[in-house]
Design goal:
- The protein is mainly α and 239 residues long.
- It has one domain: Four Helix Bundle (Hemerythrin (Met), subunit A).
- It contains six helices and no strands.
- It is rod-shaped, with a radius of gyration of 37 Å.
- It starts with a helix and ends with a helix.
Length: 239
């Protein structure tokens, strides 16, 4: 209250009536608040957009990782069925990419503790699956199809693959939830920005009209006062 009075007194000291000074002060306060809302909305949109982009990158990376593991398993099966080394090409290509896929996902999830735990479990399951694939291929080469089939029949590979699919699904679902939340925040921010823009325009027009009216009234008052002073001077000279 004291600050407002001081501000009004300061404006009054510049030769402005209190009503006009109050109008100018209200305009300044209004535009400061509008600017603050604009900054907040812009920051919210930028942060939410960055989060949406990151969740998309995680989902794409985790799906590529799952695809690589499936390709590795497909190559192993083709080789065990045919004994043809060419069927190992998808396996070899996938194995060469899997670690970089895991590293990419890890770099995107460094700030999410729950997702980091899931990723660690996924890394262990992928490692176990790759070991199982390598063991069956080596068994086929050194001991023949029967030895490789015996390893496959332990269902270790199936258990690992089921765990991988489950963890990938959990990570994907968590990122999808985050993306939905951020998109909702962005939509809310867009609404706030739209409403604020409309209100700013309308209130700006109103303030302009009000201040214009106050300035006109102040001008007329000064002219009237000046006229009265001149009239008094004229009367005094006649007397």
């Amino acid at each position: 209250m004291h600050r407002k009075s001081a501000a009004l007194n300061k404006l009054g000291g510049l030769g402005l009536e209190k009503s006009l000074a109050f109008g100018l002060l209200a305009a300044v306060v209004f535009f400061v608040i509008s600017a603050a809302v604009a900054v907040y909305t812009t920051q919210t949109l930028r942060t939410s957009n960055e989060s949406v982009v990151k969740t998309h990158q995680v989902i794409v990376s985790i799906d590529l990782l799952l695809s690589d593991v499936q390709d590795a398993e497909t190559g192993q099966r083709g080789y065990l069925l045919t004994g043809n080394e060419q069927y190992l090409q998808p396996y070899q290509r996938a194995v060469a990419q899997i670690q970089s896929r895991l590293a990419r996902v890890e770099s995107l999830l460094t700030t999410d503790t729950a997702q980091s735990y899931r990723l660690e479990d996924l890394r262990n399951s992928v490692s176990s699956k790759l070991d199982e694939l390598d063991e069956t291929i080596r068994a086929y080469r050194t001991a023949g199809p029967a030895a490789a089939l015996a390893l496959v029949n332990t269902d270790r590979g199936k258990v690992d693959m089921d765990a991988i699919r489950t963890l990938v699904s959990q990570i994907r679902n968590a990122e999808t939830d985050v993306r939905s939340q951020r998109l909702a925040e962005m939509n809310k921010a867009y609404v706030v920005a739209f409403v604020t823009t409309i209100l700013s325009g309308l209130l700006g027009i109103v303030l302009t009209l009000v201040i214009g009216g106050l300035m006109r009234r102040a001008t007329l008052a000064r002219k009237n006062e000046q006229w009265q002073q001149e009239a008094q001077v004229g009367l005094g000279s006649v007397v």
